[in-house]
Amino acid sequence: MRNVEKTKNTEFGNGIHVVNRKFEMVSVGPTTSMRMEKFEKEFVEQTGVKVIIGKGGMGPNTEYACKNYKAIHCVFPAGNAVVAAAEVEEIVDAQWRDLGMPETLWHCRVKEFGPLIVSIDTDGRNLFEENKVVFNERKEKAIQEICKHVSYIK
């Protein structure tokens, strides 16, 4: 989006500034992934997107989409909003601006975007779900050990 409103150095919040009549990204923060879970299978199928970036885990619809359409879901670690914004070379376009800045879809050109953690791979393996199993197996042993030393935990 080359020319935007005739405002100067206005902060809109949500990590977007207008500088010299162009949008500039100053922080990047993804939305909670799970709120998109019910749409993800159809979205990946219809758009052909190969990388989904969000905050937190996803479920079976996304696992299916990643496996069957060779996509991945990545988690964007907390505390990296400014680091990621530095990798945005240009805001190419902004869609659905009538919904307000937080809901605007920003089309950005980026370089070396990250850090990212692959949470669902192209085989549909889900890091969060696999870790839940491991953590639950360890939890019981840890609780038993704690109970030996602390009498009020049962």
| Number of separate structural domains | 1
Class in CATH? Alpha Beta
Looking at CATH, which topology would you report? Answer: fumarase
In the CATH hierarchy, what is the architecture at level 2? Alpha-Beta Barrel
Keywords: Lyase
Enzyme class: lyase
Family: Belongs to the class-I fumarase family.
Protein name: L(+)-tartrate dehydratase subunit beta
Your description of this structure?
- The chain is α+β, with helices and mostly antiparallel strands.
- It has a single domain, classed as fumarase (Alpha-Beta Barrel), CATH 3.20.130.
- Helix content is 32%, strand content 25%.
- The protein is built from four helices and eight strands, in the order βββαβαβαβββα.
- Strands 1-2-3 form a three-stranded antiparallel beta sheet, with no helix packed on it. It has a three-stranded mixed beta sheet with strand order 4-5-8.
- β2 (16-19) and β3 (22-25) form a beta hairpin.
- α1 (37-47) runs parallel beside α2 (60-69).
- The longest helix has 23 residues, at 127-149.
- It starts with 9 loop residues before the first strand and ends in a 5-residue tail after the last helix.
- The relative contact order is 0.14.
- Mean pLDDT is 85; it is low at 1-13.
- It holds the Pfam family Fumerase_C.
- It catalyses: (2R,3R)-tartrate = oxaloacetate + H2O.
- Its EC number is 4.2.1.32.
- InterPro entries: Fe-S_hydro-lyase_TtdB-typ_cat, Fe-S_hydroAse_TtdB_cat_sf.
- Residues 22-130 form the Fe-S hydro-lyase tartrate dehydratase beta-type catalytic domain.
